[in-house]
Design goal:
The complex is a heterodimer of chains A (about 110) and B (about 110). With about 110 residues, chain A is mainly β. Chain A has no helices and eleven strands. The chains are: A mainly beta (about 110), B mainly beta (about 110).
């Protein structure tokens, strides 16, 4: 399984600001996935980050709010823009294993005041 | 209609007993099925995956799949307090690397 490192692990932010979350994988992967887990909820896919092309966003998520970069095959960033308290969540970076399973980073716990 | 459904629980099981976790899915094209365990404050970790109808055993864990009934379950034998966590069911389709997750079942093992 891949080793996935995320940072920051947690942060407290003010309303209206933006935060960029970084995800580093120890091997080259074609696709990286960004999920959100709101308090007490399950995981919701935000977008799929492909190297060399624009990210593919799921219904309800837009690039202006969640811009994603994928500069190479081992790294991606997710920015949460113009944050509101509703953005308080855990943000998870993930990659696919050989059997289609997902492996997750440790997550970035974001609290917006 | 939710694509992947689980009983939210909480499910309480005595230590040493069998815990049974259930999941139903709506897309008949679903091909791969995964069970994750998530401890509070941690990210999900993969427990098992199953692709074919029937049972698949791994230690104390058994995954059961019935595609005709669109049903997948996870049995945990000899439940331990360390099994207390939220269990997430996830499903994807052939050729699609995106997983759809259920809402999770919170399991508590009572010593």
């Amino acid at each position: 399984s891949a080793v996935i490192s995320q940072k920051p692990s947690r942060d407290i932010c003010q309303r209206g600001t933006s935060l960029t979350i970084q995800c580093q994988v120890d091997s080259q992967v074609t696709m990286m996935f960004w999920y959100r887990q709101q308090p007490g909820q399950s995981l919701t896919l935000i977008a799929t980050a492909n190297q060399g092309s624009e990210a593919t966003y799921e219904s309800g998520f837009v690039i202006d709010k969640f811009p994603i970069s994928r500069p190479n095959l081992t790294f991606s960033t997710l920015t949460v823009s113009n944050m509101s308290p509703e953005d308080s969540s855990i943000y998870l970076c993930s990659v696919t294993g050989a059997g289609g399973e997902l492996f997750f980073g440790e997550g970035s716990r974001l609290t917006v005041l | 209609q939710k694509e992947v459904e689980q009983n939210s629980g909480p499910l309480s099981v005595p230590e040493g007993a069998i815990a049974s976790l259930n999941c139903t899915y709506s897309d008949r094209g679903s091909q791969s099925f995964f069970w994750y365990r998530q401890y509070s404050g941690k990210s999900p970790e993969l427990i098992m995956f199953i692709y074919s109808n029937g049972d698949k055993e791994d230690g104390r864990f058994t995954a059961q799949l019935n595609k005709a009934s669109q049903y997948v379950s996870l049995l945990i034998r000899d439940s331990q307090p360390s099994d207390s966590a939220t269990y997430l069911c996830a499903v994807n389709n052939f050729g699609n690397e995106k997983l759809t997750f259920g809402t999770g079942t919170r399991l508590t093992i009572i010593p």
